[in-house]
Amino acid sequence: MNVAGDLCGFPLPFGRLCLNVTMNPSNILCWNVRGLNSRARQDSVRTLINSMKVDVVCLQETKMSQISHGSILTSLGSDFSYFVELPSVGASGGILVAWRHALGPATATRVDNFSVSVQFCPTNGQAWWLTCVYGPQGDDNKVLFLQELREIRLACQGPWLTLGDYNLITSDADKNNSNLNRAMMGRFRRLISDLSLKELPLHGRKFTWSNQQDSPTLVKLDRVLCSID
To answer: pTM to 2 decimals?
Structure first.
């Protein structure tokens, strides 16, 4: 798995940034879609996938308690024959990871409280893990989320790429005001250090979320981390 690729961010409707990870063997789209439960939103996702020639799709905040094959067909297209989902709780949360038929079935998958993990094994290549996250609100749940990532890493050995909306920041530079939770920032930095992860730099944008007010709060909540093996 070559993770020395390119990470580009570009604005899309619904107030979130879309991350495009270009790597070998796959082109990965990561997006907090803020609901996949309308035909208009599904059409937007499919248009983006077609224009970017995406191989793997990682969507957060689907707001769907169950995703049917019909919804996959409408949102992604007929070539995305494999997918794993974390259902939403009511209209809150939800994760979808889907990939094209040519990549073959996953070697292994796991669904946790705040993430979905898939192991890919390319032809004549090394098996690697992809984990898509949607981090929770509230300090207690954030602590549980960080512990979940530690447990995933223990179970999922080898090259690892974890990406998505962490709902966490690592430094003052990740936010445009001084309303900071420094204790949680420290916990997140410690996790990254303990698991020997590196962050792929984001090109084109500094922040990934805005509250879209006249004097907006801007935060980098979405990121891509990878192991160094």
So the answer is: 0.91
